[in-house]
Design a protein that fits this description.
Length: 138
């Protein structure tokens, strides 16, 4: 089984929404009326950071890639999406242990993949939010 087919058919526990309901309930309780604004700003910023991470990985600027990945992870972690932060720490650990460029690129892709998973969960829960975010990026 290739990694592509695994990403297309995530296990039920990894599917968006499987464990995200409690996170969304916590966000709604914490931010109430401001939740849409907070998430819109998060999406706008994180979309830009993910693009920067991909650019850094493509050029093998690992120090900057780690800085950007940790920023992406920090922001997601603050909202309760710890998998993104875990993927960012994985990239930092791989860089610290001087893993090869291929492994580092894979770890950078995992950060973006976890962010996209979070984005998909947001789209499922708040379809208008993600649509309006896409309009502001375009």
């Amino acid at each position: 089984m290739s990694s592509t087919s695994a990403a297309e058919n995530p296990p039920e526990a990894d599917a968006p929404g499987a464990s995200d309901e409690a996170v969304f309930a916590g966000l709604e309780a914490t931010y109430r009326a401001d939740l849409t604004n907070v998430l819109a700003l998060y999406l706008e910023n994180s979309d830009q950071l993910c693009q920067r991470l991909q650019d850094c990985a493509a050029c093998a600027y690992w120090q900057e890639a780690v800085r950007v990945a940790l920023k992406i992870g920090e922001e997601a972690d603050a909202l309760g999406f710890h998998r993104v932060a875990g993927a960012a720490r994985g990239l930092a650990d791989s860089t610290y242990h001087a893993d090869g460029a291929h492994a580092l690129r894979n770890d950078a892709q995992m950060v973006v993949l976890e962010y996209e998973r979070f984005r998909l969960a947001l789209e499922t829960r708040f379809p208008n939010l993600v649509a309006s975010s896409m309009d502001s990026v375009a």
